[in-house]
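Box S1 | Example of a co-folding query
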Amino acid sequence: MRRFKILATARALPPRVLTNAELETMIDTTDQWIVERTGIRERRIAAPEVATSDLAAEALLSACGAAGLEPDALDVLIVATSTPDTLFPSTACWVQHKLGLRGPAAFDVSAGCSGWLYGMELAASLIAGGGARTAAVVGAEVMSKVVNWEDRSTCVLFGDGAGAAILTACEEDRGLLGSAWGADGTLARVLYQPAGGTRQPASAESVAARAHTVHMEGNTVFKHAVTAMSEGAIEALKRAGVTPEDVTLLIPHQANTRIMEATRARTAIAPAKMVSIVDRYGNMSAATIPVALDEARAAGRLKDGDLVAMTAFGTGFTWAAQVLRV
Ligand code: ACO
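Box S1 (continued) | Returned holo structure for acetyl coenzyme *A
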């Protein structure tokens, strides 16, 4: 077991709500189609001047405040994102820039919707190995700026937001009991942003072709997501030596309710234990699990010693699942 305790969690969500009814006026879609296929009713959209680091910094500051900790007391700041402010430096460094924060090691994790759990895996290992005593893991995305707003098959799915957790070493019996993670890069092209990197640098042609936006084969993602998220969760439970009945909450990555429900059913965790926020926020990629965890904590759904099963799947493909004792 890799011991740590979560000192605090927090979330930052842009105030602007984009409803399905408003999407009906923008593209050829209906509220009914979106709700039936995805469970999403509305999502938050960042203002034009807001970047991922702005949401990440807001969530980080709130979490530090709730933990009674100055940000410079952190040893490491990990930001999980697929929508960085810039290709370099990392969004984590832009968070430091915004906060005037010097000192803590800072870097991004690029693992799509699995990113926050990848970040937790790293933070837990750093704390267990002595590389850090106190770590912040932030999941933050401004998906609305990489979505093609004329592509109805993708633009209805995503939303913007950030969630943060502050972890610190402890002697108590808490932290990651078991985990499973992996990736399959042979399927990289199923879900990706083609342009803007060194493969296809930005050009007038790439902008005209809308190659700087999400390209996705939704059906393929769907099938792989259900398999990887459920198998990952089952493996993490096994490695933790606990049963589905022992789990207080299941927090699956919030892409759509059909993926989440199929994952829950295969994992054999009771329906009432599943946290679902996708109806209000859509798919915020790396931010969905920390935001859901923070909302569950705020709602009093977790008490000391409870077990949380978390499982995610995303671009790459990547996947990760963990059993956390809070
Ligand atoms: N409104 C109305 N009709 C639509 C819309 C829309 N917004 N989008 C697609 N359609 C149409 C399609 O054009 C198609 O029409 P056709 O039969 O005339 O060609 C029809 O609906 C069915 O399309 P499918 O793609 O087969 O619909 P499906 O049931 O697979 O649902 C969806 C699509 C919701 C994207 C689904 O595949 C899915 O959720 N995939 C997972 C994708 C995902 O969550 N990705 C996020 C990143 S990865 C992750 O987070 C796990």
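The chain has a mean pLDDT of 97. The radius of gyration is 18 Å.
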